[in-house]
Amino acid sequence: MPPYADLYDDRSFPTWDHIPSNFFLGRNTQHRPQDKHWCFLAEIQQCDGFLRYRTVVKDDNDEEMVVAFYPDSYEGFDWNKLKRGHTLAIMYAYQHSFVDGSYGVRVENMDHVHVIPLPLEELQYLGAEMNEYSAGVEEGQWKCHGCGEIKPSSQISRCGRCKLVGYCGEECQAKGWSERGHKKHCKVIQDSNFMALMKLDFSRYERAFAFTRD
C-alpha cells in the first residue's frame, strides 16, 4: 500500500457523477452518517462572493458544476483562497440540484472543505510524486527527487522544509526545485490539512474526517 493517498483513485476521489446524490435523502447533509471516506476534488473556474459564496468548478472529467456554501458560521475559513486555478477538496460531498436549475455540491460543514493552491492536474501529479519519491517507499533505499537514482538512505539528504523528498546533492536539489516544481509543491506539502488528507486511510472508516480551521 502506498504511504499516501492515490489522488487518481476514483473510489476515494470520485468525480461528480460518481458521488452520492442527496435527492432521496433530504437537503441537509451536514450531519448525515457515513460508512466510508470519499473526497471530491474539483478545480475552481470562477468564484462569486456576492451575498453568498458560490463557485463554478471543473472535476477530473472536465465537467463543470456549482459548489455553493451554506455554512452555520463564516469564521475560521479563509474565503480569499477561493481563486481560479485552486482546487477544492470536499469530504463526503453529495450531488445537489439547486432551485435555479443548476447542479453541483451544497456545502454546509466547512470542516469538510479545504482549498489547495494548485490546479487539479498538478495536484494529482504531486500526489503521485509523493508516493514515488518519499522516504521509506523502499526500506533502506531512497529515490533522489532530482536524478531519479535509488540509493541508500544514508546518501540522500532530506529537503530541509517539507522533510518528504530527498536529493543526492545540490545539483539534484536545484533540478528538483526548478524542473520538477518542488519550490512550489514544498509549500503545499507543509500544509498540515493537505498532509492529513494524504495520510488518511480511505480503506478504513472509524470516524468522519475533518480539516482543522484557524
From TrEMBL:
InterPro entries: Znf_MYND
GO molecular function: zinc ion binding
Pfam family, one: zf-MYND
Highest taxon listed in the record's lineage: Eukaryota
Domain MYND-type: 144-186
Keywords: Metal-binding, Zinc, Zinc-finger
Protein name: MYND-type domain-containing protein
Source species of the chain: Cytospora chrysosperma (Cytospora canker fungus)
